[in-house]
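To: structure subgroup
Subject: Chain for Friday's discussion

All,

I'm putting the inputs and outputs inline so they're searchable in the archive.
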Amino acid sequence: MVATRHGKEKVIQPVLERGLGVQCFVTQNLDTDQFGTFSGEIPREGSPIEALRKKCLYAMELTGADLAVASEGSFGPHPQVYMIPANEEWLIFMDKVNDLEIIVRELSTSTNFNGQLVTSIEALKQFAASASFPAHALILKDDKESGHDVVKGIQDAVLLQNEFERMVKTYHQVYVETDMRAMFNPMRMQVIAAAAEKLVDRIKHTCPACGTPGFDVIKVIPGLPCAACSSPTRSPRSYLYGCAKCSFQEEMLFPNKKEKEDPMYCDYCNP
């Protein structure tokens, strides 16, 4: 079961079916908007992972499925490069019978996430061009925060202009933003597809001890020695893998395929 109402199965389903040999389905009765909307009418409560769990449990209850996959996205400044917008996508695979959760995260700067107040049709057209309209849909609102008058999913230039003219007569300004719902945003769909590939890889990585899917990194251990002075650096020396079911753990040395670090990353050689 792919728990979505926004067409995400178009990129998630083929990846799961090809990679895992499963058959996916969706249901038209699944209202995931109750857990939050990007346009602000319904604020998301809790973290993206909490929203993922709510979607899967709701989908399982509605359909009787034992397996579910859900996606949740966030948009904002990149966590390391604050001036660049980023799309963070989370995917969860939930197995109710085996009480198993497998979660992956994909962070990408490939996004047109943006919004601004406009008072002229010229400014609106400039924003639309920068947002890859009409391939990517736009939203018009009377105000960025309140959003009492909201028109979503606009992909027609005539409709965009007509709705703008209607709103600007009443509110004297209009807030335009990119529609970040997956079915209206091909760039976001690509990030979700990449997250789905990562999820399949994670599921296929099984525990050497008990065979449970999702054997993954639980700790990054720094200390890769400097090539010049042999002092431990902050770079990863090893990854510690752990099983979500049993207590088995396994350390993998030199995960980045190198046994020494460049002195430029050494706190002693390059303080």
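Points worth raising on Friday:
The first strand starts at residue 2 and ends at 3.
Helices lie at 9-20, 48-63, 121-130, 157-171, 186-204.

D.
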